[in-house]
Amino acid sequence: MSLRSVDLNLLVALDALLSERHVTRASERVGLSQPAMSNALNRLRGMFGDELLVRTSTGMQPTPRAIELAEPLRQLLRQVERVLESDAGFDPGKSERTFTIRMSDILAFLMLPPLLARKPAVSRMAYNILHLPPADTVEALERDEIDVAISMGLDHSNSIRTEKVLTDRMVCVMRASHPIAGRPLTFETFMAQDYAKQSMSPTDMRFVDNVLADMGHKRRIVLNVPHWLVVPHVLKRTDLLFVMPGRLAAALNDDELRAFDLPFDSAPFDWMMYWHRRYDQSNANRWLREELRRVCAAL
Question: Are residues 110 and 142 in the same domain?
């Protein structure tokens, strides 16, 4: 296939189709009509000699060739965006750039409202928020799939820069009407309860479960959930307890919940900002990092 014969707009359409797996949603994502997106899909099928997306009983599914294309295509389009937008003349008030930031739903809950409030009113910039597992976060930074990550304890190479942005600690949260909520939380009472846990969080293991294991104890985990913000609704309707970062517990500001200090020594921890060293001198990336610093400082 000759590069001169490739319509870049078709690759943008393909990226949307592979992400959405739905012609109408893909058309809305890139600002095309539904017939125009259908036409683009037909042209793409001819270009690659493959169906790319096929209809099944569960919706449109990618072919093996489409799955093979998805990741390289995303990286290619990201690099094209970099080329087309001059970093040297970056102006947050005029930029149409989309910044991709890795953060969990906890951090999004805390940081996105003030971050968006700081966005210039006339700016057409956008933020794309991803919640990736820790190992995938490092790979995404290396592959230039994200601009900045806010996380903690990532195992990374010297090509990744780090900076502390928030200090936090773990607390134990339960509903205010829980049978044990009216008395001090002792270690014996803590160990006698049933717990919910967030499945992707390294904080539970490092600052709770590993500490308990060193003491020869193990708490009872009866519920594992993928997202933090479902937890308050679970706690209000059950006798489960949850150990979470204190900043999240405070931000929930919910009269139906109570937070207690852990009844054992658990060290504070730091939320870190991560970026790739290739962007040390990037005006756009430096601007984003400074915005995140200011948001965290205000928290």
Answer: yes
CB 66 within 8 A of CB 41: no
DSSP 134-159: HHHHHHHHHTT--SEEEESS----TT
Cα(71)–Cα(66) distance, rounded to whole angstroms?
10
Calculate mean pLDDT across residues 174-181.
Answer: 96
- Rounded distance between C-alpha atoms, residue 55 and residue 63, angstroms: 10
Residue 285: band (very low, low, confident or very high) from pLDDT cuts 50, 70, 90: very high
* Buried residues in 164-175 as b, exposed as e (16+ CB within 10 A): ebbebbbbbbbb
Does residue 102 sit within a domain? yes
Give the span between the Cα atoms of 38 and 42, in whole angstroms. Answer: 6
- Residues β-bridged to residue 175: 257
What are the residues whose beta carbons fall under 8 Å from the beta carbon of 167, sequence distance 6 or more?
268, 269, 270, 271
Return the structure tokens found at 91: 């102006």
What is the pTM (predicted TM-score) of this model? 0.72
Quote the pLDDT of residue 127.
Answer: 92
Q: Which domain holds residue 139?
A: 98-164+270-298
In a domain, 46, yes or no: yes
Give the E-state strand segments of 233-282 in sequence order.
241-245, 257-261, 269-276
89 inside domain: no
Amino acid code (one letter) for 144? D
- Same-domain check for residues 126 and 274: yes
Phi, psi of 259 (to 5 degrees): -115, 140
Q: Backbone phi, then psi, for 163, in 5-degree steps?
A: -155, 130
